[in-house]
Amino acid sequence: MKQSIGDRIFDTANVIVLALVGVVTLFPLYYVFVVSFTDPAEYIQKQGYILFPQKWTLDSYKYLLSTSAFQNATFISGFLATVGTALSLVVTAALAYGLSRKRLQGRRIIMLMILITLLFSPGLIPPYLLIRDLGLINSIWSLIVPVLTSGWYVILMKSFFDSIPVELEESAVIDGSTDIGVFFRIVLPLSLPALAAFGLFYAVAYWNTFFSAVLYINDYAKWPLQLVLRNMLIDSSTQAGGSAAAEMMAEQNIPTETLKMAAVVIATVPILCVYPFLQKHFAKGVMLGSVKG
């Protein structure tokens, strides 16, 4: 179909505008990446205005990864993203599976309680008092237990389990399988798209844990990566404050800015690397609960 002159002008303008938007969006990411690999002496000489360094170096990364504070923060964030995601998937899938089966007694009441959590929020004080009474203040588990599951994810996963034929479970029971066996051997393998999608959501949320750590973690040695990164990016005065950021930024000959940029890259790359492995399941998983016709 032949395009008119107006259509060509419109398409050209669209390409130009979108290209400009893409440049504006990607340039900060490019700048962070470049500065993190810039030689400290070159960065100081050019006073930070670098678009393409003459000498690439890993000095900032080596220094960050050699500090105990950054190692602890990376380990804690990795623990939250792996263990927290695994536990959240098990709890969410088990709850959603139970609610999807009509033989569960009181499932309407449970669903009502879940819906209430979506409509009303308790605020900050009740959760803090609960965590305090459970003795989880300054514990890594205070960043996992309160957010083990999400009412919205439970409802979406329940709609996925509703589509699994009950005959599959009945045949497994006839063959001698227990309810737990049916769940782990039949239901979960059939739910890989849903598990991949929600696993990615949970992993990103756990990896980016910040506000919960501010509320419940007082010991800087137990801070997750995002909280340490926040102190590095915003509060450079922490060099004298006895914090995790102070330990990393004190007594070093590497510019503070290159350390900040390296920390941002380290905090961002792991989650970006997860997407390609889950891509084939993610497209199906995000369609959960959609209108089918």
Report a brief summary of the structure.
Residues 74-278 form the ABC transmembrane type-1 domain. By secondary structure, the protein is mainly α.
Q: How would you characterize this protein structure?
A:
This is Carbohydrate ABC transporter permease. It comes from Paenibacillus piri. Belongs to the binding-protein-dependent transport system permease family. It is a multi-pass membrane protein. It is found in: Cell membrane. It contains 14 helices and no strands. Helix 8 packs across helix 9, helix 10 runs antiparallel to helix 14 and helix 12 crosses helix 14. The protein folds into 2 domains: 32 residues; 227 residues, Orthogonal Bundle (MetI-like fold). About 2% of the residues have low confidence. It is globular. It is mostly helical and 293 residues long.
What integer is the average pLDDT?
A: 81
Low-confidence stretches: 237-242
Question: If you consult CATH, what is the topology of the largest domain?
Answer: MetI-like fold
Count of strand segments: 0
**Main sheet characteristics:** none
Q: What's the CATH architecture of the largest domain?
A: Orthogonal Bundle
Distance between the termini: 31 Å
* Structural class by SSE content: mainly alpha
Fraction of residues in helix = 55-70%
Residue fraction in strands: under 5%
SSE order, one letter for each helix or strand: HHHHHHHHHHHHHH
Cα-atom radius of gyration: 25 Å
The number of helices is 14
Domain module tally? 2
Topology:
Layout: H1 5-36, H2 40-45, H3 59-66, H4 68-99, H5 107-119, H6 125-133, H7 151-162, H8 166-174, H9 179-190, H10 192-207, H11 211-216, H12 225-234, H13 244-249, H14 256-285
